[in-house]
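#structure-requests
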Amino acid sequence: MAMAEKFKSRLFFFFKLALAAAVVWVLFSRGKREVIESLRTFDCRYLIPAFFFTALQIFFSSWRWQLLAAVPGIKLGTGEAFSLTMQGNFFSLVIPGGAIGGDVVKMAVVCKRVPSGNRMEGAFTVLMDRIVGMISLFSLALLLLVPARELLLKVHFGKLPADPVVNTLLMWGLALLCIGGLGASAIIFFHRILFRLPLISFLLEKTRKFTSAPIARLTAATDAYACSWHLLTAMVLMTTVCVHLLAVVPFCFLLWGLGVKFSLFTVVTAVVIGNIAGLIPLFPGGIGIRDLVTVTILSAGAVAAGDAKTAQLLATAIMLVAYLSGGLFFILDSGTKKAKEVLKDGQ
């Protein structure tokens, strides 16, 4: 049975790789002459700041986790948090679990580095870091939706004309997705109210013998975060500026390298909504669907299709290089024995 599950996991992983490759191929094969011409005229010097700000974005993500981990008493050094973040990014691309698989590796390694009595709290910090990132991204998208309405109404797919009705429905769908994500995140901080619900209370009572200790520790960790609401608020704001909006900066340098004039608001909207699309677990690292959505919105914002595709192709290449370089941190990190055991068990 275990072998069958492993086979299904690997098969599904290769399916996702094939799907991402197919989307990227279809997207960039149409108008490939324009893409090739744009690549020829691209000023490669702009790759330097693009790589720098991509690395800076990853650093701020790791710093956020370091600060959040300190709430339940998990001490991580700045270099250690950055190394583990890079390793998580690497495994989000190369193992079947995708972004979740990368988080599992981070959990495994951080649990190995903390006292045995704090391992559950150590793993919980990874989840909390993910939640703070999503709260920031969903909130930013909601703030953009109203001013971006005119831009998003111009979005069209391929040779099909823009359909205001379809685009309005898509905007409402995105808004409901963000509101639902924010609501789901908020529930975690109001878990004690949730536990009072009859059905939840009944299930907890029936499983108390097996779950009372783990649940008590998790609720205590969650309470610690709820009491640190000022830190959570600061981390959400920092993530909005230093992670999600900073992700726009490398893209701007790529467009400048192509000699393209563009609206900053259009690029911000395209990158943010593209990153939300990249959360879909069918695409490893969001590759494929993120490219499609970002290019589509840029094209609606009067960026030539060839330039939009070239900039996104370069942005994806930079992301791949940055994430794959996380493998070096895994190889050189002396504290990854536990993660290697986890990977071996999953094969």
